[in-house]
Amino acid sequence: MAKQTTSRSRGVRSSRTRPVMVLLDLLGRRWSLRILWELRDAPLTSRALRAACDEASPTVLQARLDDLREAGFVELGEASGYGLTALGRELCETFMPLHRFAERWRSKSGA
Predict the structure, then answer these.
(1) Contacts from 30-33 at CB under 8 Å and sequence distance 24+?
(2) Cβ atoms within 10 A of the Cβ of 67, count?
(3) I need a surface site. Which of 21, 26, 34, 53 has the fewest CB within 10 A?
(4) Is 11 helix (H, G, I), strand (E, B) or coil?
(5) How far is it, in rounded angstroms, from Cα 32 to Cα 74?
């Protein structure tokens, strides 16, 4: 579970908030979901992750990586770069039904 406050970035909602709201607050931060999505298949170096994230600002990308590491979803490997933890992989698996739905929706709506 994510820590409730952090000195590096704005904290998530208070500890009295429901856990789902704390999680959604974290995942709703710019680039959080994209980082998790890009790491779903394999670890990436900082440079490769930035390229995969459409050249996101290095400052924002690093802040989000710090948030996701603190929450236990991302880890920094010695040689392979950033990768998902077991908890991060579990979180990404929960998005797959939504991803499949979005693909069907896009094909039907032309979005």
Answers:
(1) 30/60, 30/64, 31/56, 31/60, 31/61, 31/64, 32/64, 32/67, 32/68, 33/95
(2) 25
(3) 21
(4) coil
(5) 11
Kindly report the pTM of this predicted structure. Answer: 0.80
Distance CA 98, CA 100 (A): 5
Please name which of 34, 88, 84, 79 lies closest in space to residue 61, comparing C-alpha atoms: 34
Residue 93, Cβ density class (10 Å: 0-12 exposed, 13-18 middle, ≥19 buried): exposed
Q: What is the pLDDT of residues 19-67, one digit of tens each?
A: 999 999 999 999 999 999 999 999 999 999 999 999 889 999 999 999 9
